[in-house]
Amino acid sequence: MADGDVETRSNRGQWENAVEGSPELSQSFASRDEAIDAGRELAVTLGSHHTVRESAPTGVITDEDSAAGEGG
Predict the structure, then answer these.
(1) Which of 7, 13, 18, 31 is exposed most, by the fewest CB atoms within 10 A?
(2) Per the record, which residues fall in region Disordered (predicted)?
């Protein structure tokens, strides 16, 4: 990816748009479709490319820290 390119990908159950070379422009979304639409628009605004990295849906949003505090 070149600087400014936008990649939509799954990250621990959420979808995010990562901007190469500009992490401050990255955003997270609850749905894949919402992230793809926003990623496409962002790429047009930046004059860059947009790609979608496919992944198998998990159906859950995970928080690695929350499991550490649980016990039985």
Answers:
(1) 31
(2) 1-33, 48-72
